[in-house]
Design goal:
The complex is a heterodimer of chains A (199) and B (242). By secondary structure, chain A is α/β, with parallel strands linked by helices. Chain A is built from eight helices and six strands. Chain A has helices spanning 4-14, 21-33, 36-52, 69-72, 87-96, 123-130, 146-159, 184-192; strands at residues 54-55, 62-63, 77-84, 101-105, 137-140, 165-168. In chain A, α1 (4-14) packs across α2 (21-33). Chain B folds into two domains: 3-80, Nucleic acid-binding proteins (OB fold (Dihydrolipoamide Acetyltransferase, E2P), Beta Barrel), CATH 2.40.50.140; 81-239, Up-down Bundle (de novo design (two linked rop proteins)). The chains are: A alpha/beta (199), B alpha+beta (242).
Chain lengths: 199, 242
């Protein structure tokens, strides 16, 4: 234990995701030894983010304005909607430059054991968005883990009767890995999602 | 500190640090254990989807002071894929995992009957043999019986007077005769009591032939009975699809 303010800083840092007590201590001492100008810049960024960043009223992504950059961009295809769990998933998909449609951020995945059901996610907002009929295809890009799969199952059942084309992001073998190390579920999915090679 | 090997059902996973998870597993011989699965959240993890809830796995663990560490995992039965593909199965299955966790609160206390019951119920659920809600209710009644709280749906739960009886008193442990009947007892449809008895004994012919309203009534009583014996609420019950 350290004295007063130093310990307070360590405690605060330790509440961040992925930061254990040791890491919190390391970051705290790094900050103490840093140039005060750098630290003030960090503080300013933290303050700015809490004051200025909001969530896009359409897709739920983080945004500096009422509507995010992607929702405001007229070049994005309004007919295709990609449903993801978190804003960080939008960033990951944007990096691929493969997708030209728009997004819908759920704010998590269905997890009954944690008490999180469909009503705790932005599912109602999704259904409302679909009412205009502009969207014709939905890509379910929830995480390829159990809760992500369950969320996709739930959404597919909800959306298919609305006459939409519903697809699920293919899950398969990690590029760069060896086949023999893949678990049965991953290998099974890779078989289901196999594609024709046009040569 | 030593290595041991056991098979078990993964009940729950919880994120730890950057890429690890703590898994709660109900094993055949060692009861419920909590173990760290290192690097499991990385896409290239050698554990892959093997350590997700519902999976029946063959594990090798390294015994630690408070938490064990998973060193190897092989799939015995991937029940998860058959369960997650259907939302009603998923919500019923999750309630089963949470119930199993609650009934084995003390870690490392052998609970072979609970393990066998859960593994069997998950197999049935994944295969889609019966309505998910019936599989859940049957599992709950039998798991409570194994835990020492067997309900009675034939003879009076208080005095043992031979049934059938019409009234159900959750606190008394099932049906009660007119003499033992406490005020405020439920009076469900006789077919509901027959359904509860069938679910408890595993008489699927009767259970599968039951009607919707009887199933809803039986579910309500089963849930009430479960909550009566567990101190805290079983969270996932609220989200089970009827
Ligand atoms: Zn937006």
């Amino acid at each position: 234990m350290y004295e007063g303010v130093v310990q307070d800083l360590i405690d605060e840092l330790g509440r961040l995701p992925g930061v254990g007590p040791k890491s919190a201590q390391r970051i705290a001492f790094h900050l103490l030894q840093s140039d005060p100008v750098d630290v003030r810049r960090l503080v300013a960024a933290l303050v700015e983010v809490t004051e200025k960043v909001r969530f896009c009223e359409l897709c739920g992504n983080v945004s500096a304005e009422d509507q995010c950059r992607i929702c405001r961009d007229p070049r994005r295809d309004a007919a295709v909607l990609c449903v993801v769990e978190e804003p960080k998933d939008v960033v990951a998909i944007e990096k691929t430059r493969e997708f030209r449609g728009r997004y819908h951020v759920l704010g998590g995945a269905i997890s009954p054991i944690e008490g999180i059901g469909p009503d705790d996610l932005r599912v109602k907002e999704l259904v409302t968005r679909l009412a205009s009929g502009e969207v014709t295809e939905i890509i379910l890009a929830t995480d390829p883990n159990l809760e992500g799969e369950a969320t996709a199952t739930y959404l597919a059942r909800l959306l298919k009767p609305m006459g939409l084309k519903v697809t699920r992001l293919a899950s398969g073998l990690p590029v760069g890995g060896d086949l023999e190390y893949a678990d049965e579920l991953t290998l099974g999915r890779a078989f289901e999602g196999r594609r024709l090679l046009d040569v | 500190m030593s290595l041991y090997r056991d098979e078990g059902v993964v009940l729950r996973t919880q994120k730890l640090g950057e890429a690890d998870r703590i898994i709660s597993v109900l094993t055949r011989h060692h009861g419920r254990v909590r173990a760290v699965a290192k690097g499991v959240r990385r896409t290239r993890s050698r554990f892959g989807a093997r350590l997700e809830p519902f999976m029946l796995v063959d594990l090798q663990l390294y015994e630690g002071r408070s938490l064990d560490t998973v060193t190897q995992a092989e799939t015995i039965a991937p029940y998860g894929s058959g369960i997650v593909s259907d939302y009603a199965r998923y919500t019923s299955g999750t309630a089963m995992l949470e119930t199993a966790e609650r009934l084995t609160e003390t870690e490392r206390e052998p609970a072979v009957q609970q393990f066998l019951l859960l593994a069997g119920a998950l197999r049935t659920l994944a295969a889609g043999e019966h309505v998910p809600r019936l599989v859940l209710d049957s599992y709950v009644l039998r798991a409570l019986s194994v835990a020492g709280w067997a309900p009675s749906f034939t003879d009076c739960a208080r005095c043992g007077a031979p049934g059938p009886h019409r009234a159900v008193a959750v606190a008394a442990g099932g049906v009660v005769c007119p003499q033992c009947r406490p005020p405020g007892s439920a009076a469900p449809h006789p077919a509901t009591i027959a359904l509860l008895a069938a679910l408890l004994t595993g008489d699927w012919e009767t259970a599968d032939a039951s009607e919707g309203p009887r199933r809803r009534e039986a579910s309500g009583l089963t849930a009430a009975y479960l909550q009566w014996h567990l101190e805290r609420q079983v969270r996932s019950l609220r989200l089970v699809e009827r």
